[in-house]
């Protein structure tokens, strides 16, 4: 892999967040840029919420090609953009911004990232699938949009706060097959859940012994169920190792992270193909995860 050499001609990409020091995006994007031997570099930009608007003007002034958006700017940036893709509007959040005709345009590649491993590796007739999504935060919104895009028969979002659940449900128009439910209803949903997605942080490093579902609960899942955890560290999580013990398909969050990044890089570089496997390898190495 070639080294990135910064010159006067080097084009800039980056990620905005607050804090942003722990973002994994520079690792995977710089690995891809270096593999492609392009005169680009991808930088972390710590931008406080009150500086978001001025940061956008500054980025325009220095000719930044595009940037990723992370917490806390994913919703706040919406009114500052010239246009927002329909998928980002549906999710209600932007994670990728690019410069088109001297204007900032926003989209959301988390949905593409979420469905990528489902479509490429485990493709099935999703119109028979009942999806059960644990958690109703920001990532759950991308997962719901992904399940709608796949054409899932029924989609249940499970949360612990009834008011937040109702707001979540009301924010989706024209989705009669989307339902919300509290955790106590989970035992009724598990036997139908052919796609079970954990979007809560339960089981994330360092609380790696936790799982949103117990072994007994996992045993009630259908035999052909897919368990998908958005967490990527550890890999597998306790939730996924319980699923594997049942002989179920288990997908961790690393591929989603890689594929949402790859989708963003395709937009910025205007390319159909980017080296996603190089991005994945760089992340695994950085996180000290087992190489597969
Ligand atoms: P978020 O907006 O804070 O949402 C977290 C959700 O989990 C909320 O609904 C929260 O419930 C629920 N929750 C938190 N702790 C819980 C607990 N102990 N019991 C039950 N529910 C609990 O966070 P997010 O942005 O959606 O991210 C969620 C997870 O997804 C994180 O682990 C993140 O790293 C991961 N993620 C991965 C990717 C990827 O590319 N792989 C992308 C995005 C996010 P309340 O609302 O009631 O607090």
Keywords:
292 residues, alpha/beta, Rossmann fold, six-stranded parallel beta sheet, 36% helix, globular, binds NADP nicotinamide-adenine-dinucleotide phosphate
Task: Walk me through what this model shows.
The protein is α/β, with parallel strands linked by helices and 292 residues long. The protein has two domains: 130 residues, Rossmann fold, CATH 3.40.50.10860; 140 residues, Rossmann fold. It contains eleven helices and twelve strands. Strands 2-1-3-5-6-4 form a six-stranded mixed beta sheet. The chain has a six-stranded parallel beta sheet with strand order 9-8-7-10-11-12, with helices on both faces. Strand 7, helix 5 and strand 8 form a beta-alpha-beta unit. The relative contact order is 0.13. The mean pLDDT is 95. The site of NADP nicotinamide-adenine-dinucleotide phosphate has 24 residues, from helix 4, helix 5 and helix 10.
CATH topology term of the largest domain: Rossmann fold
Number of strands: 12
Count of DSSP helices? 11
State the name of the first-level CATH class of the largest domain: Alpha Beta
Question: Topology as H/E string?
Answer: EHEHEEHEEHEHEHEHEHEHEHH
* Domain module tally: 2
């Amino acid at each position: 892999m070639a080294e990135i050499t910064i010159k006067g001609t080097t084009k800039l990409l980056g990620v905005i967040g607050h804090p942003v020091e722990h973002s994994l995006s520079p690792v995977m994007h710089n690995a891809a840029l270096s593999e492609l031997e392009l005169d680009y570099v991808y930088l972390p930009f710590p931008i406080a919420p009150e500086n978001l608007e001025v940061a956008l003007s500054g980025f325009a002034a220095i000719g930044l090609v595009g940037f990723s958006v992370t917490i806390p700017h994913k919703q706040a940036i919406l009114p500052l953009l010239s246009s927002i893709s329909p998928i980002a509007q549906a999710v209600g959040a932007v994670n990728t911004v690019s410069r088109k005709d001297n204007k900032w345009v926003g989209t959301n590649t988390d949905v593409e990232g979420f469905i990528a491993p489902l479509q490429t590796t485990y493709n099935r007739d999703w119109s028979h699938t009942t999806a059960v999504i644990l958690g109703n935060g920001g990532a759950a919104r991308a997962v719901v949009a992904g399940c709608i895009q796949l054409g899932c028969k029924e989609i249940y979002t499970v949360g612990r706060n009834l008011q937040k659940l109702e707001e979540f449900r009301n924010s989706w128009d024209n989705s009669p097959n989307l339902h919300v439910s509290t955790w106590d209803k989970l035992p009724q949903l598990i036997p139908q859940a052919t796609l079970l997605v954990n979007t809560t942080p339960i089981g994330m490093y360092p609380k790696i012994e936790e799982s949103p579902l117990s072994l007994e609960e996992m045993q009630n899942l259908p035999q052909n169920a897919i368990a998908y955890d958005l967490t990527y560290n550890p890999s597998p999580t306790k939730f996924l190792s319980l699923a594997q013990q049942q002989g179920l398909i288990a997908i961790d969050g690393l591929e989603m992270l890689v594929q949402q990044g790859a989708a963003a890089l395709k937009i910025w570089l205007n390319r159909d193909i980017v080296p996603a496997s190089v991005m994945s390898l760089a992340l695994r190495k950085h996180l000290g995860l087992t190489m597969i």
